[in-house]
From TrEMBL:
Species for this entry: Actinoplanes aureus
Membrane-traversing stretches: 6-24, 55-72, 84-102, 114-137, 149-167, 173-191, 203-226, 238-260
Sorted UniProt keywords: Membrane, Transmembrane, Transmembrane helix
Matching Pfam families: YndJ
Signal peptide: none
Name used for this protein in its record: YndJ family protein
Keyword Lyase assigned: no
Amino acid sequence: MWVLVNLLVMVGMLVVVPGGLRLLDDSGLALARRVWPYGAAGAVCLWLPRGPVATGFAVIYAVAAGVLCAYAARFSNRGWRAQIAWVTALVSPGVAASALVAERAGYALFGFEPGVLALTVAHFHFAGFAAALIAGLHRQISPGRWADAAALTVPAGTMLVLLGYFTGEFVELAGALVLTAGMWTVGWLTWTHARSGRYDRLTAALLGTSAVVLAASMVLAVSWALGEATGIPHPSLAWMAATHGVANALGFAVCGIAGWRRVRDRQGAGTVLSVSATS
């Protein structure tokens, strides 16, 4: 299971975050984009035994994530309603990096065992960064109440899940339900774009795959959170990593970001995608 989790985290570090950052048309992110490949080299820590060397590499990653957090602080001064999804996306790698440093050091951060910390790293790359970024993207390109709902419920659900780590399974279940509502809304909005006829077949297939996989994978998330809160039978963590984790990482995040990158690259930044911190 942990080999699979590490592979998924590497996908987040090396593919999803840098790909997502290129969707943000803002010159202020230039430093973060330049720094990120160096920080992502810290992914080697995932394959080293816990200890000072692994922790050192994790800190390298944390520095790059810290640059995004610093930019998010500037970003948040531009109106929370328009920017909350972007801010959530930009701070999520920082949350993941904090958990990663502690896990690689063998330190029980806030009392959480290494396994929980490792899963936190994965969660905040995909449900945190990728989902919030794509929710914010929809709010930019197709404003309306559904896009507004996605841009609010995805960040709110992500934060509630995190709060549930500290307060109990029922808060985590509430977070899973809110996050699922937001993710399903993101999936539906993505599906409407995929079926709009505006894009080539490969782009439409990538967006459509992202939407369908997301809808299915979040059913598993709810079933697991419900089981944890109530004690009813539910999938094991190993099963969740192999199904929900793989689906969210590859089917949703990688396909979704690749699809939107194709839209942006073929139609020009700012024509269909107006993803700018100043908007």
